[in-house]
Amino acid sequence: MRRCRKPPRSLGQAIWTAVILSVALGQADAKPTGNRLAYLDGADPFHVGLAFPRLTTPQWVGETGVETVVTLGIDDMRDPRIYESFCRPILERLKQIDGRAPLSIFCNSITPTEPLLQQWLKEGLSVEVHTLTHPCPLLAKGNFAAAAKTYHGGVDLMNHIPGNLPAAFRTPCCDSQNTPSPRVFSELLMRRNPAGQFLEMDSSVFNIFTRSDPALPSSLVTDLDGKAKFEKYVPFDSYVVTIENYPYPYAIGSRIWEMPCMVPSDWEAQHLHGTNNPVTIRDWNAAIDATVIKQGVFNLVFHPHGWVRNTQVIEWIDHITAKHGSKVKFLTFREAGERLTKNLLGGQALRAANGQDNGVRLLDVNNDGYMDAVIGNEHLRQTRVWDPQTKRWIPAPFPVSLVQVDGDGTRTDAGARFGILQPSGNASFFISNGQARGVWHFDGGDWIEDPAMLRGLGQAVKTVDATRDNGVRLRDTDNDGHCEIIVGNPETQAVLKWSASSKRWQPASFNLPPEVTIVRRDGTDNGTRFVDINEDGFLDVIQSNELRYSLNIYIPQPIDGWFPGWPREVMAGPRTDPNAIPMIVRGGEQNNNGAWFHSRHLWIQNEDTAHLPNLVDRRSFDDLLRGILPLPKSPQESLRSMELLPGYRIELMAAEPLVADPVAFEWNEAGRLWVAEMADYPLGLDGKGEPGGRVRWLEDRNGDGGYDHSTVFLDGLAFPTGVMPWRDGVLISAAPDILFARDTDGDGRADESRVLFTGFGEGNHQHRMNGFEYGLDNWVYGANGDSGGLISSPGSGRRVNIRGRDFRFRPDTLAFQTQTGQTQYGRRRDDWGNWFGNNNPSLGWHYTQPGHYLRRNPHFIAPSPRRSLGNYDRSHQVNGISQPLQRFNGVGTFQHITAANSPAPYRDELFGEQSAQHLFISAPAYNVVRRELLQPSGVSFTSHRPEGADGPEFLASRDAWFRPITLRTGPDGALWIADFYRLVLEHPQWIPNDVESMIDLRSGSDRGRIYRVYRDENKPRPIPDLHNRDTAQLVAALDSPSGWQRDTAQRLLIHRGDPTAVEPLAKLLETSANPKARLHALCALDGLGKLRLEQAITGMRDPHPGVREHAIRVSEALLHSGQGQALGEALNRLVDDPEIRVRRQLAFSLGEWNSPVAGTLLARLTNRAGDEPELQTAIASSAVGHSVPILDQLFSGPHDMENLRLMEIMLRLAAIESDDEELKKLLRRLVNTPSGLEPWRVEALSALLSGARTRQLPLDTPFADPAFRQALHAMATNAKATPDGRVAALRLLCRLPDEPGKIERLLTGQLTAQSPRELFDFSITELAKRDPSAASLLAHWNGYSPSRKRTVLQQLLAADRSTRGLLAAITDKQIAAAELGPVFRQFLTTHRNESLRSQAIDLLGRQTTGRSELVAERLAKANGLNGSADNGGKLFALHCAACHSLGGIGNSAGPDLASLGDKSARALFTAILDPNRAVEDRFMLYTATTRDGGVLAGMITDETATSITLMDLAGQQRQLLRGEVASLSSVGRSLMPEGLEQVLSARELADLVAHINASGVPPKRQPGNTPEQVSPAEDGSLLLAAANAEIYGDTLLFEEKHSNLGFWRSANDKAVWTIDAKVAGEYEVQLNWARDGDGTRNHLLLQIGGGELLAPVEGTGTWDDYREGSLGKIRLERGRQRAVVRPAGELDSFLIDLKSIRLVPKG
User: Which residue, 72, 1049, 1319, 1578, could crosslink 1037 as a Cys pair with Cβ 3.0–4.6 Å?
Assistant: First the structure.
């Protein structure tokens, strides 16, 4: 098809694919060639088109005067009554034509004995197959067996209707999605079901009339606006299950008739312009008029779903009868099939009685443009040639049989290979099968044998050997109009060309490419196709199967050392290559994998691609041909390749040889530019780790503003990442150290270097610690880099663990602290002290909570301190202009942020009025620099791009070597950029070995550039020299728009420590009109230790909120020194400050004041904290010692959810720090109330008593009332109450005295399958405390689900006594040893307790040593085994999903398996069987011992100042306060256990490897989004919350602030939940959503198992107006299944903001 489309490129994992296809045909302007019969060798459902021979209605209908056939096919029948009601008027109208009611109903699961069916059959209807369950798509979830079951079951069911013989099939959703895969045809339709039943016909491919058909008047194919009439109905660009201008029946694989459907179906029509639109009928009228002209078939697809009225169908029928009369015949599909067999094929059906090959081939034997037929079987050998003049069939003999039949009736292809071997273009064929051998040509009337054409072939060239295809094909390789004979099997590869002069076949000068065969040893398809990929008119060779792939381009004339043939290898390699061509065949019993060529793409649709956009994997021809690496450019050439936003310009400031490999830079006070150069990237100078990094300084000696001199200051550094001038030297970050180096002899080179801090992690060089940034508080800040470390200073005994956090330090005093946030590269600050960072693939974060404040309250688990930037549609889309290199660790992320760096606020005024809003982010993978504009939002920001998501980037380069890393605002007001300038940015750990061997990883190591960007109208200022200025001049320098100058002047003032600076600083604070100067005056006074009371108060009264905010911060020193009372009035006034940031800072700083007044002010701050979670966090951080007055204020306020959260925090704290009398008052206040036992009081009491669990409280008096306990019991057992409320009631009951056994019975009652997870988890934890032997937990073992068994095992391992109970249960066979997964086995057999370890080894066996030998042994056993990805998926879910996520299944805490660079069997066997060979620190197993004696083992997934989060052995996230942890130690090995060889055979390991290689893009990871399985509530309902969804696609995001799924704009966006339905049946779908505007403009599709629900998304008014309503009903099966929500068709703006979907069982 020639529509100009640019389907979105998919870079997903190569998906297994297969199809029988030989050449791309069906293009509108294609002309008959020597390859016009190649389609006979395959089973491509889409091979026809305008140039393909016609099979007109008169050729087969058998009724004089009939020129067109109409079939009416209505889909989706489950309830016959609905269809009777809808169809009855249509049936009666049809009867008016000729007394018949020819309508075909495509059915799902129905009752065969339904009386209506018999009535319909009597009236002339046919009942056809639409699968049992209507899965959409049919091939999905990696489960081919499910597709086969629903298809073959449907065939069987329709055959059980008395009197019915189904003939046709229609693929569910074929009019809205890419569901009619070639795999469906080859592996389902062409097969038989277990009962031997089969169908003969399909109607799933859609025909589109276009303006390229000269036979059709323009008025029939063009709308009044001049646009194409029918192409507008295509639901999306990548909808490619279509043909054009071919409204005729055609055969697929000589087995199945395709009756193409006509565009539009009623769904396509309503999708475009709404339901019941009159335009639909007008276009149907045009389509039938065109069909009559073409003498074709019109197959109407419609439904009784309200998309078109039955009266409109009747209106269309009226048009047909009125305009065309008896020219049009209405038939059912059964009738059409019978007439094709009788009138076209002389009574011989396409399929034999057993469903196999019947020796029937459809081809245009005489090249007249009309389809003919040849028949060669045991019943008839005949050629049937259509004479269009007399409109009759002319029969003639056919010389051979086309099918072989063995003794048991099995039928196989006899091996006749058709092609063009004569100048007339008539058909010829060659056959050689041991019984028949020869070449025959059709001469226009008969087949003439040509014995001469056997010369040169020899007896060895057989088309089939017995029943095995030998890979012989006739193809015109050189475009001379005559076919060559190609032989491609494992024994013989040859290309034979007919020599007219010598009258014999001779070997051509070329052969098939190396390792390319057409068939395998067993004769099955090997995935080789002849397709013109580069569109030069010659066939290229593409092969892709489960073992290898290749693409070779045909060279017609000698050029550049290439000779004719296929010598140009564009790509080739093993299947394990991540950029391999998707498989065309997959091996095994179902070899066809659903591949076809269409619209300049290779497309693949099967059960393993259904998770991809539009259900398909794809490779454009351009992508397939791309394979040339770009060359480096000179600095000036690279500069010319850059494009900036209008109004900006870029200058080259330094380049090689002055600088090379720059990754970071900073200026000193003299204007020298200091540069850190990572020259040793990626693997050291020698590829083995030899350090070669440098720090150098650049200088402008001639005064022209550019750098002209370079001096290497220090070299031999190991991968340096940052540099900062400090006093008389520089600070350097080079893991594992932070160094201070200086030049003492004046030669410009370092001669003294010392380590300030050491212990930083040395993992991936892109993930190492980096720096630096000077803070307003005079600390130096650095980024963690993701590698962590245990940091110490030489000579100091103190060590700080920075795992999961950034850091700050004082170089002079060696003070060192962790800080909130974990930044991968470039922690940056703006003018007002806001800190920004990121971690791939995040665009950027704002860190809102300083870690040193949070540490003060060790009893408080703070919420996430990160606020994501890029809060708009498609914010992560990168609009690069280069041709970027393939990224191996970002599968499926083309043109999306995958390597964001250095989120740098612009800190000057030369970028216009919005200068202060600019934030720049580098994206080196795509050679761009992004600009975001920040907009304040509460204490944080949102950001946007004025250019829009599709607009140009701030800076983009066409040079693929341009690698912008660090961005900084320079002293001159320009934006400066360090260009690393490398070909390969990817770290080798992500690059497959075979690719790595073909490229130089260090290409560009001798190059590097530094640029600056500025506005046209604002030329940069000269770089100032501050190093010789006196103190007064430095103070004056603070009054500058330049952030660099203010920071540098402040730093120099602090370093000098000159007391004469105090008065000018105080004056600057009082008199400067520049609020930033006033801010720095305060910060400098603070840093000098000279801030006075009156200066602090002046700052607190400043008109600018930023100055007031920091005035509060710097006054903390005064609070410490006892001057708080004097500050009281100013602080009191700030409680009511209108700015939230000021109030929040006040709340933080009050925690530094040890005074009752601080508690009073904190209490007052709670009045406006209800809807301000950031203010609540600040209050909580300062609440130690002030909890009671804060609670007094909270009790008097509203008891809503927002205040209740803060109240719970305060109650837990009060329970710890208040005295007994205060605690009694709190208890009485909560219990003695006339309002009764409200839920908030129970939760409050639970929080209070939970916090006071270590104290002996007099509980009898306040809780003596039996009614109180009864009310608690009722709440705990109330299935309609919230799980959290029930847990609170249970927790409170557990704290109260009660009769023995009563609480235990209540807790035991929660250990049921129906119990919510929260209650189950609490109950097993509490029961374990009450019964250390854990007998009560083990007693219910057989009733636990697998996930709950893992939870119980985790609890049993928490203490030695319960561990003994577990081992005893295994000994007594109460628990089978096989029920313990490898992770639990490893924990037990390596237990720290020697006795338990010994007992576990006796029961479970000792871990195998000699891991390398084990890998080799198992690899040898698995060699040659074809793994089953389907079975591997089941093994993955059982053994791996607790830690790893793949294909939408599992937990994403472990390493990302989808992005592994090396997925070879050896690499994966090593990772599985020897997991501790190489382990990143973040994946290590840790053991936490709590202060109450509990033990928790797991992997650390998050850390804050006060808490640690571990993913335990059961895959559950567990939060621990640091104060609760007695010890935390690394076990020294991966959480992934050794010992999987004990539970996985070699075959299963091969299956697991196959699954990993077949799986695609993992879900996105976003803050606040924690995908987890959805279990039913007590009433059986399932709540699909946005926070628990897996998120896929280009733009879909989880908006943590709103707890919704938003920015739903892209066609491939989807949300997926794993649900566990306890009851099968029909469920009501209740939606909680918002959408801007009114009316319906978009539709969403909900798919669960085989069911689906298509529903409109109505506007709710605004994005803030959420509405709840019912979408309809959907059927769920019992058990675990996947629920998918995605857009249906093209989107008009955003689809929806989705909070939740609730599935409620009917009844």
Answer: 1049
**How does strand 403-405 pair with strand 662-667?**
unpaired
Amino acid 259 reads M
**Spatial separation of the C-alpha atoms in residues 1294 and 1300, rounded to whole Å:** 12
Q: What would the pLDDT profile of 577-589 be if each residue is shown by its tens digit?
A: 877 899 999 999 9
Polymer length of the chain: 1707
The tally of CA atoms less than 13 A away on the side-chain side of residue 34 is: 20
Output the CA–CA distances (angstroms, integers) from residue 1394 to 415, 1400, 1494, in the order listed. 71, 10, 18
828 with 837: CB under 8 angstroms?
yes
Please count the other Cβ atoms lying within 10 Å of the Cβ belonging to residue 1410.
10
Cβ atoms 217, 208 nearer than 8 A: no
Tokens at 1405, concatenated:
């066996």
Q: How buried is residue 596: exposed, middle or buried, by Cβ count under 10 Å (0-12/13-18/19+)?
A: buried
Please tell me the pTM assigned to this model: 0.58
Task: Tell me, letter by letter, the H, E, C secondary structure of 475-519.
Answer: ECCCCCCCCEEEEECCCCEEEEEEECCCCEEEECCCCCCCCCCCE
Specify the DSSP class assigned to residue 1672.
E
Check whether the bond before 264 is cis (ω within 30° of 0).
yes
**One-letter-per-residue 3-state SS of 1183-1203:** CCCCHHHHHHHHHCCCCCHHH
**Contact by Cβ (8 Å): 1169, 1176:** yes
Nearest to 963 by CA among 931, 917, 1004: 1004
**Separation between Cα atoms, residue 553 and residue 626, nearest integer Å:** 12
Q: How many CA atoms lie within 13 A of 319 on its CB side?
A: 17
- Adjacent-strand bridge partners of 1009: 655, 979
Under a CB-based contact definition with an 8 Å cutoff, are residues 1528 and 1508 in contact?
yes
* Helix 1283-1295 with 1266-1276: angle, nearest 10 deg: 140
Tens-place pLDDT, residues 606-657: 999 999 999 999 998 877 875 445 678 899 999 999 999 999 999 999 999 9
- Which letter, b or e, does each residue of 531-549 get, where b requires 16 or more Cβ atoms within 10 Å of its Cβ? bbbbeeebbbbbbbbbbbb
Which residues are CB-contacts of 1337 (< 8 A; sequence separation ≥ 6)?
1311, 1324, 1327, 1328, 1331, 1352, 1355, 1356, 1362
β-strand 1009-1015 against 648-655: which pairing, if any? antiparallel
Taking Cα atoms as reference points, which of 1453, 1502, 1482 lies closest to residue 865?
A: 1502
d(CA 1065, CA 1083): 10
Give the 3-state secondary structure of 1278-1339. Answer: CCCCCHHHHHHHHHHHHHCCCCCCHHHHHHHCCCCCCCCHHHHHHHHHHHHHHCCCCHHHHH
Which residues neighbour 162 within 8 Å (Cβ) at sequence distance 6 or greater? 112, 113, 118
Vertex 794, ends 791 and 798: CA angle to 5°?
50
C-alpha span between 611 and 616 (Å, rounded): 8
Which residues face 519 on adjacent strands?
525
Residue 654 is inside which H or E element, if any? strand 648-655
Separation CA 1345–CA 1349 (nearest Å): 6
Q: Give the pLDDT confidence of 1560-1610 residue by residue, as tens digits.
A: 556 777 788 888 889 999 899 999 999 999 988 767 888 887 899 988 877
Q: Tokens 């561990």 appear where?
A: 1363
Q: Which of 790, 776, 773, 758 is nearest to 1099 (CA)?
A: 776
Q: Would you tell me how many other CB atoms lie within 10 Å of the CB of residue 31? A: 7
Angle at 1686 between CA 1680 and CA 1692, to 5 degrees: 165
A 10 A CB-CB count for 63 gives 14
What is the rounded CA–CA span in Å between residue 460 and residue 426?
27
Element (H, E) at 360: strand 360-363
